[in-house]
């Protein structure tokens, strides 16, 4: 037996994150950990990897009892972990980040390490330039660095906390192949994912956690995704069917011949962007991470300026307006990375609510009305079923999916005219993703215009009225969803479109 957990428990003030969890993982087994947001999955993985110390329980590693002193000890034993929130230094390069992760005795010259990174990257098809600064990488690319740095050492257990959440379907499919290869070599894998069809395709066994306790197990190959969802969430779950396109109105957000040159060597050049987003519609943009999504969100948010072209909000040019002024005019943005940009980890939920919410609620003439701010935070917590001990809890101690629900709720509740959201259901369980989808459609039906950037094609097809793709900083045609086959969208994602045609399509709306 590669790994055996016997009655592991971990308590935090006001919550039992893990309650006497027992689990067995064989050599070469791919074992899924399932559970709704806040069920205790990440905490369990962090205890195995030595990031969090258990309050009680025992752990056997290759049939011998161990007490993991910390992540360095876990790595020495042959464990690797890909975290849900990246543990990378943004100001260092890919190679420097990986060097920091390795034991000094394993580290040769930087040139040799660079070569090794390229070799692993090529072997697993996870293209990355070792000399790029991590801060300039997209979320998907940062995820690749996390994965490569585990694969660079000989590992016997790889722990992955939602590794495919930010990968494109093709990348996720590729990763699944890589994991199968690794398992065939005898490496055990612990795999957390909310994407149940992936669990179904990949995993040998699954353990279900609910409120910190093991409540069931199954063999995913013999269990349908719907049955697994029911095991996790109980019988009350109703899965969303496709939403009907709604009637759209006048153009609310318009990009005209936008040109944004790269701000650093690795940023993407946005070229000739033309887009008209109407009241009451959702435009979904597909695309592989690192094709200009970050730059487009920054442009719309007011953090990047265009050197050519215009950004118009309800016909008014806004490119000279800052972030706050745009928010006053009814724009809201949900960024890709929830910690750092979406929320401040060391601030409470109330304070995080104030960060963007104060523009529409809670502050007048520079004075904060904490009663209003707290009441709003409480409303978001209850409406979006955010699992937390309360509005005073620090954002950083929430589970990933619960923080995502809070951030989404905070932006939707401001009733924006235009909502730009990037990966809206990243790391969110099926029940909560359902709720977020319904709220986005409700916002659309109230007349808001929504630009949705996602790598989850199912989600894009479910929610969007019109679909397009971003590739190498250029926008494909944007056409009604019924006219965009999966094959066509795939071609657009790969850049097979004529930029001039795109301009005509968008202007024609
Ligand atoms: N450092 C911490 N301080 C206080 N509470 C914490 C801390 N870390 C986790 N928790 C709480 O423990 C519970 C389990 O969290 P955990 O992150 O393990 O859930 P999860 O199943 O991984 O959720 P998700 O699917 O959203 O990532 C949650 O209620 C969370 O708020």
Automatic annotation (TrEMBL):
Membrane topology: Peripheral membrane protein
Main subcellular localisation: membrane
Domain ABC transporter: 3-236, 253-497
Compartments reported by the entry: Cell membrane
InterPro entries according to UniProt: AAA+_ATPase, ABC_carbohydrate_import_ATPase, ABC_transporter-like_ATP-bd, ABC_transporter-like_CS, P-loop_NTPase
Listed Pfam families: ABC_tran
Keywords: ATP-binding, Cell membrane, Membrane, Nucleotide-binding, Repeat, Sugar transport, Translocase, Transport
Gene Ontology CC: plasma membrane
Record GO terms (molecular function): ATP binding; ATP hydrolysis activity
Domain of life: Bacteria
PANTHER family: CARBOHYDRATE TRANSPORT ATP-BINDING PROTEIN MG119-RELATED, GUANOSINE IMPORT ATP-BINDING PROTEIN NUPO
Protein name: ABC transporter ATP-binding protein
The organism's taxonomic lineage, starting at the top: Bacteria, Pseudomonadati, Pseudomonadota, Gammaproteobacteria, Alteromonadales
């Amino acid at each position: 037996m590669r790994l055996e957990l016997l009655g592991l428990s971990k308590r935090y003030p006001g919550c039992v994150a893990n309650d006497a969890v027992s689990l067995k993982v064989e050599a070469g087994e791919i074992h899924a950990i399932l559970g709704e947001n806040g069920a205790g999955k990440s905490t369990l993985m962090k205890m195995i990897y030595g990031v969090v110390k258990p309050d009680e329980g025992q752990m056997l590693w290759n049939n011998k009892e161990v007490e993991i002193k910390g992540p360095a000890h876990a790595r020495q034993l042959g464990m690797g972990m890909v975290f849900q929130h990246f543990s990378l230094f943004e100001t260092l390069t890919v190679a420097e980040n990986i060097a920091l992760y390795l034991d000094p005795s394993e580290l040769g010259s930087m040139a040799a390490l660079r070569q090794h990174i390229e070799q692993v990257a090529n072997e697993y098809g996870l293209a990355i330039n070792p000399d790029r600064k991590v801060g300039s990488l997209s979320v998907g690319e940062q995820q690749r660095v996390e994965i490569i740095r585990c694969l660079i050492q000989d590992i016997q257990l790889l722990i992955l906390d939602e590794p495919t959440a930010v990968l494109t379907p093709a990348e996720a499919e590729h990763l699944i192949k890589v994991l199968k290869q690794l398992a065939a070599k005898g490496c055990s894998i612990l795999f957390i994912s909310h994407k149940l069809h992936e669990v179904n395709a990949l995993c040998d066994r699954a353990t279900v956690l609910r409120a910190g306790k093991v409540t069931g197990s199954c063999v995913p190959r013999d269990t349908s995704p719907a049955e697994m969802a029911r095991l996790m969430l109980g019988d009350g779950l109703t899965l969303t069917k496709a939403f009907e396109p709604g009637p759209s109105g006048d153009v609310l957000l318009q990009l005209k011949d936008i040109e944004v040159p790269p701000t650093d060597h690795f940023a993407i050049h946005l070229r000739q962007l033309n887009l008209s987003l109407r009241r009451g519609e959702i435009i979904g943009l597909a695309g592989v991470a690192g094709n200009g999504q970050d730059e487009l969100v920054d442009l719309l948010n007011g953090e990047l300026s265009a050197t050519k072209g215009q950004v118009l909000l309800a016909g008014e040019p806004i490119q000279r307006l800052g972030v706050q002024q745009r928010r006053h005019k009814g724009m809201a943005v949900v960024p890709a990375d929830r910690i750092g940009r979406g929320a401040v980890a060391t601030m409470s939920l109330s304070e995080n609510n104030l960060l963007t919410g104060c523009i529409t609620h809670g502050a007048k003439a520079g004075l904060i009305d904490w009663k209003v701010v707290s009441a709003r935070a409480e409303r978001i917590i209850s409406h979006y079923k955010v699992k937390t001990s309360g509005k005073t809890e620090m954002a950083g101690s929430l589970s990933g999916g619960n923080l995502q629900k809070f951030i989404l709720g905070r932006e939707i509740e401001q009733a924006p005219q235009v909502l730009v959201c990037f990966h809206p259901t990243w790391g969110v369980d099926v029940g909560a993703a359902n709720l977020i989808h319904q709220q986005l459609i409700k916002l659309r039906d109230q007349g808001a215009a929504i630009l949705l950037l996602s790598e989850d094609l199912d989600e894009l097809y479910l929610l969007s009225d019109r679909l397009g793709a971003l590739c190498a900083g250029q926008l494909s045609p944007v056409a009604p969803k019924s006219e965009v086959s999966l094959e066509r969208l795939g071609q657009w994602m790969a850049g097979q479109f004529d930029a001039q045609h795109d301009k005509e399509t968008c202007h024609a709306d």
